[in-house]
Amino acid sequence: MDKAKNILPYGDALRDFLADGNISKSELRGILRNRGIFTREDDKTTTIPHLVTRGITPNELLELYQTISETEEEPKALTQTIRCNVPEVDLLSILPSSEEIHELIKKPFSNYELIGIPNFVSNIGEVELDFIIERTDLTKSWDKNTKQFSGKVRFSKIDDELDINISLSHTSPETKEVASVISKEMVNRLKSAGFVNNDESIRKIRFNDFTNINRVTFLNKLSKEQTSNALYFKDTRDLGFCPDETQTLPDDISWMQEKITNLRLQGKNLHSTVFIRQKKYHEYIKVYQVEASYSFDYDDCSGSCQISYEFPEFISKQDNSSELSIKVLNIRFKDGSNRSLAGSVKERTLKILEKSKLKLHDILKQHDSS
């Protein structure tokens, strides 16, 4: 924790902190029960006064910060590629130093800074950079005015392929910005070294890369065709789409015409709903989000999770060029698995999906998209 968070809150500051929406009533109830205090009601209006009166310990404060952090900081993954003009690329030869990375990120009047000494780590066929930024927001209360977020940039190349895969992972708008700046610098260095042609551009998976029909196919296949032992599809739980306003809808779904701008379905077996099951509707709807549930089984842990596949700016900003973002949610471990492996599970799961989404994008994108 940073210096501000080494101070135990009390009084009104503690009351405001415990009221945070990311702290559940069951967690507060658990703290009281560990002290041998049982209340008739479990809601926060009952438990918070008890804790404000008695205070909380440093360990309890640390656990609550961990809860807030796990809720807020879900890594979101973007995958991009760029074409090389040579079969062999020495990624180590073009890496920026820690000092150069800091200089890249510096900008006047910024509300965040890169902390630590970020350096790329190399593995077979890839280089990877983990970084942390600290964001300052003076409009927030004492416990929230500084916060740290992590991000990751990975460049990888398979020997017999010409494409370099670029993976960006971010937990906030600021880490997304930092990852993009570092990625852009790496691409410039690849071009300067002659590994990539100067007129080559980064390929991204964007909403407008697909026709309405192929976008449904892309999201449906990407979410459902994960059937390995490591990651196994179970159900589609969330579906977001809107009618295509440029089309005249068929009579049986004409009720959406000029009335529905965004439709979210939540439940079970949503891949079998009429909108997905009946292909005749696919050209009339713009699907922008699918969330599905999975089981996972890795060497050191097993359990279940949900994965969200989304073009987030399509609805929030009406941006047709919104880039595909994937995040792993609601990890639940089987008995005996170590909860501290949650971050590792997210990384391994996102890595499994990289090759699938690039392959499907190759097959289903419009030929004139870039």
Task: Please provide a written account of the structure.
- Pfam families: GAPS4b_N (PF26110).
- This is GAPS4b N-terminal domain-containing protein.
- InterPro entries: GAPS4b_N.
- Residues 12-73 form the GAPS4b N-terminal domain.
- This protein is α+β, with helices and mostly antiparallel strands and 370 residues long.
- The chain has helices at residues 11-18, 25-34, 44-54, 58-72, 98-105, 173-192, 212-224, 274-277, 312-316, 342-364; strands at residues 76-83, 112-115, 121-123, 126-136, 146-157, 163-170, 203-204, 231-243, 263-266, 285-298, 301-310, 325-333.
- The chain folds into 3 domains: 11-72, no CATH class; 76-204, TATA-Binding Protein, CATH 3.30.310; 212-368, no CATH class.
- It is 32% helix and 26% strand.
- Strands 1, 2, 3, 4, 5, 6, 7, 8, 9, 10, 11 and 12 form a 12-stranded antiparallel β-sheet that branches.
- Helix 1 (11-18) runs antiparallel to helix 3 (44-54) and helix 2 (25-34) crosses helix 3 (44-54).
- The two termini are 43 Å apart.
